[in-house]
Amino acid sequence: MNKKNIFSAFENLPGTIFARIIKGFGKKTWDCAILGTILFFVVALLIFGISTWKPHQPMIQYTPADVVYENPIHVVHDVGFVSNPNKLDSDSLRSTESPEIVLSEVYYDFGVINSTRTLTHIFIIANSGKSSLVIQRAYTTCGCTVADITATEIPPGKVVLMTVQFDTSYHDMRGTTVRRGVVIETNDPLHPTQEIWIQASIR
Fold it and tell me: 68, 118, 120, 157: most buried by Cβ count inside 10 Å?
C-alpha cells in the first residue's frame, strides 16, 4: 500500500483524533515526522549507553588454591604499611621478569544506603608478571575506610583478596555522595601506584 492509499484509509475514519491529524499532514510532513521519531530514539539510546557505560575491568580467573595468605596487611588512613623501605630498583628488572599488578576493579558503587551501616566489598589483586609482586605501602584516604589484604607478597600467577570496609557512621555524611580510596604502592615498574575507589550515597 503506497502513502496515498494510507492517507486515504485514515481519512475514511472520521471522528477520530488520529484521522484529523493525518488529514493535516502532507507527504513531506509525514516523512519529517518519521525521520524525527527515528532520530529521537537514536539519541535516546546513545544517551542511555553513555550514562550506563563502565570502563572495562579485567576478568581474573583463579581458584581458592591461588589465594595467598601470608603476612596479611591491615590498611588504615595515612599510616600505611611498608614491607620494605628500600624499594626494588625497577631498572634492575627486565620487562620479561617484572611483576605486573592486575586489579579486578578500580571502582565500586554501593548505591544509596543509610547512615548507620558498615559496608564491605572484596577486590582481587593478581600478579600476571614473571616475578613476585610486593606490596610496599598501602593506605586509605579517610579514617572511615580500612582494608585488609591477605598477603604482602604475591607470586606469579597468584592473587590476594583485599576486603575494604567503609563505616558510614564514622562522621556525619548524611545527604551526601562520598568517594573513598585505597592507594597501593608496589614493585611493579610500570604501575608502581594503583588507586581503588568506592562510592556511596548516604541518606
Answer: 68
**DSSP state, 13?**
S
- Provide the pLDDT for residue 34: 74
Q: Residues 148, 158: contact at Cβ < 8 Å?
A: no
Task: For residue 104, give the C-alpha cell.
Answer: 579486578
CB 138 within 8 A of CB 80: yes
* 118-127 vs 159-167, strand pairing mode: antiparallel
CA angle 157, 121, 65 (to 5 degrees): 30
In the chain, the amino acid numbered 9 is A
Architecture of domain 67-202: Sandwich (2.60)
Q: CB neighbours of 140 closer than 8 A, spacing ≥ 6?
A: 75, 76, 77, 146, 147, 180, 181, 182, 183
pLDDT tens, 161-198?
A: 999 999 999 999 999 999 999 999 999 999 999 999 99
| Stated pTM of the model | 0.67
Residue extents of the structural domains in the chain: 3-52, 67-202
